[in-house]
Amino acid sequence: MNTTLIGLAGVLAAAAPVLFAVIGETITERAGIINLSWNGTILLSAMGGFTVTYLTGNLFLGFLMGMLIGAIVAFIVAFGSITLHQSQVAVGFVLALAGRDLAYFLGVPYMNTPGPTLPTWPIPILKDIPILGPLFFRLDIVTYLSYVVIILTWLWLFRTRPGLMLQGIGERPAAAFVRGANVNRMRYFYTVIGGAIGGLAGPAYTLNVKPGWMGTQTGLDGIGWIALAITIFGGWNPLRGAFGAYLFSLLQWLGLVLQPSLPGIPSQVLQVAPFPLMILTLLLVNIGDAEWIQRWLASMPEGTRRVVARVLRAMRASPPAALGVPFESE
Amino acid sequence: MKKNIWINIGFQVGALIVALLITTLLLAAAGAPPLKAYGSILSGAFGSSNNLIAVLITWSPLLLTTAGVLITFAAGLWNIGVEGQMVLGSIFATWMLRLLQDTNIPPALIIILGILFGMVGGALWAGLAGALKTFGGVNEIFGGLGLNFVATALTIYLVFGPWKRPGVGSMSGTQPFDEKLWLPTISNTGLSPWALGISIVAVAFVYLLLRGTYFGLRLKAVGKNMKAAYLLGVPTWQYSMFAFLLCGVFAGLAGAIQVVAVYHRLLPNISNGYGFLGLLVAMLINYQAIWVIPIAFFFVALNVGSIQLQIVYKMDSSFAGVLQDLLVLLVLLSQGVRERFLKKA
Which residues contact A317 (CB under 8 A, 6 or more apart)? Predict the structure, then answer.
C-alpha cells in the first residue's frame, strides 16, 4: 500500500513538466494563438534552467531562467504571427526544432554533471492526513506550484471578467474588439504568459524529476509534442488538461511497473505506449464533429441516436472558434 | 516585377547573413574559433571523396521527403507525420527482404519488391493520418505526431523483439542482409546511383505535377481555399487523401532506400530526422519545387560537415540544425517584414 502511494506521488511529481506545458498552451490557445514550439521550448528551458542553477547554485534563478526562455520563444511566435502575419504553425514548428538543436549544442559543457536538485518540502499538518498526506503533500515546492497553477488558471478563465475576455478573444475576437478589448495586444500578453508558465516545464524536469542535463539522453525529447496533444485532449480546459497530463504520467509509470511481468516487451515500447492511446483519445474527442458520424446518427432509431449522441457530446471538445485565425481590426 | 525578384533575393541573402552572424557568435561562445569551425564543416562535407559520398548518400532521402511534403503543402496540409511515414517505409522494406531472403527469387527482384513494399508502408501510414483527418476530424499535425511515435515504438519493438539479432537485440539494429540483397552502389560505399537518380526524378515529377497539370492546379485550389474548391466541383477530401498517399509513397521510398542501399538492416533511428528536415527545406524555398535540389544539397552538406565539429571541437553536431532552423526562422520573419513594410510603401 505504502509503496503504491509513494509511486503515485511520484506520478504527480513526474507529471509536473507536461502539466506546466499543457496549462501554458491552454492559455495560449484560449487566446486564439497556436504555439507549436513546446518541444524546443522545454528542452531549451531544461538545459538553460539546469545550467543557471548549476553555475549559481540558486534553484530559484534556474526556474526563472526557464520562464524567461519560455516567454522569449512565445514572444517570437506572437511577433511572427500577429505582427508579421506569418503562419503560426510554421513559426512554431521551426522554433520547436531550433530550441531542441540549440539546447543540444549549448548544453555540451554541462552534460552529465551532477547539479543541485529541489529538496522535498512536506507541508506541515497537511502531510499527516492519512492517504492524501503522503500522496499530495510530501513532495516539493514546484509540484505544489503545479497544483496551484491548475486551479488559478481555471478560476481565471471561468470565474473572472478578464478571463471571460480571454475566452472572447479566442472565440469571437471581433465581438471582443467591439467591447473594447485590444485583441492583438491581449493575444501577445497571453501568449507570453503561457510561454512563461510552460517554460517551468524544463527546469521542473532537470532540477527535480530527473536531475541533470544529459544531452540527447535526457529523456525529454518528444514531451512537448505530447503536451500539445494533451491540450486538445483537455478540451482547452485546465482541469481536463491536468487530468490528461496525470493520466499520461500514470501510464508511463505503469509501463515501468509492469515491465518485469511482461518480459517479452522491451521497456522502450512500454515507454511509448501512451501515444497510441493518445491518438485514440484525440479521435474520440473529435469524431463527434465528423460529417459521416452525423449522417450515421441521423439514420439511427430515435432511442439509440439519443444515447450515442450524448456519449459523443460528453467526449467532444471544440477548439476556440478563432484558434489560429489572425485578427485585423479594420 | 523584376525589382521584386531582387528585393526577394536581397531579403533571403540578408536572412542568411544574420543567421550566420548568430551562429558565429554561438560558435565563439562555445569556445571554437568560428572561421576554423566553418572551415572544418566545409572540409567535413567536401574534404575527401568519402565525405562527398556521405553527402550524396544523405541527399537522396532528403530530396524524397521534401518532394513528398511539397505535395501535402500544396494541398494545404501540414504533414508532420512524414517522419513516421519514412520509418514505415524502412520497416516494410525490411519485412519484405526478410520474407524473401531465403527463397529462390532472384535478388534483384527481391530488392525491387522490397522498395515497392516500402512505398506501400509509407502510403499506409500517411493514409492513416489522412483518414484520421478526413473521417475522424483529428488535425493532421497531432495525428501525424502520434503516428511518428508509434512508428518509432514499432521499430524498437521489432529490433529488440521478433527481428532481434541471434543472441540479444541491440540498438545497432537487426542482422544485416546478405550482400546479394544490397542495392548496387558505387564501390560498396552505400552511394547508389539508382537511389539518387530516382530521387531526382521524384523531385522533377513533383515539379511538373504541381506546375503543369490539371491535377496540380486543383490540388492547389484545395490547399488555398477548400470551400471554394468544393463549390467549384473539386472532390476535396479525395484530393487531400491523395496528397497524403502520394507523400507517403515518397517518404516510404526514402525509408526503403535507407534499408536496401545504406544500412542493409533496420535501425531504431533510421529516419534520422530527414522528414522534419524536408519540412524545413520546403518552408525555406517557399514551397517552390524548383529550388529543392540545391537547397537540399546545402542542408545535407551542413549536416554531414558538422559531424567534423563533433570530432575536432567536441561539439554537438546539432550545430547544423541550429543554422538551418535559424535560417528558416529568419526567412519566415523577413517575409513578414517585407510584406508588412514594403507593400505599404
Answer: A232, A233, A234, A235, A236, A237, A240, A285, A286
Amino acid at B257: I
Note the pLDDT tens digit of each residue in A265-316. 666 676 666 677 777 777 877 777 777 787 888 888 888 888 888 887 777 7
Which residues of chain A have a pLDDT value below 50? none
Nearest to B322 among A86, A102, A272 (CB): A102
Using alpha carbons, select from B60, B113, B75 the residue that is nearest to residue B247.
B75
Is B178 in CB contact (< 8 Å) with chain A? no
Q: What is the mean pLDDT of residues B330-337?
A: 90
Element (H or E) spanning B246, and its range?
Answer: helix B236-257
Report chain B residues whose CB lies below 8 A from the CB of A326: none
CB contact under 8 A, B145 and A90: no
The C-alpha R_g of chain A, in whole angstroms, comes to 21
DSSP state, residue B345 = -
Which residues 6+ apart lie within 8 Å of B141 measured at CB? A36, A89, B78, B80
Cell of A207: 532540477
Handedness of CA A9, A13, A16, A18 (dihedral sign): negative
- Phi/psi at A319 (5° precision): -70, 160
**Residues from chain B contacting residue A225 (CB–CB below 8 Å):** 145, 149
- In this prediction, the answer to ipTM > 0.85 reads yes
C-alpha cell at A304: 439509440
CB contact under 8 A, B333 and A84: yes
What's the N-to-C CA distance of chain B in angstroms?
15
Size of interface A-B (CB pairs under 8 A): 149
Q: Under 8 Å CB-to-CB from B147, ≥6 apart: which residues?
A: A279, B81, B84, B125, B128, B129
For B115-161, how does the pLDDT look when each residue is reduced to its tens digit (9 = 90+)? 999 999 999 999 999 999 888 888 888 889 889 988 988 898 888 88
- Hey, is the C-beta of B158 within 8 angstroms of any chain A C-beta? no
- Cβ–Cβ below 8 Å for B322 and A105: yes
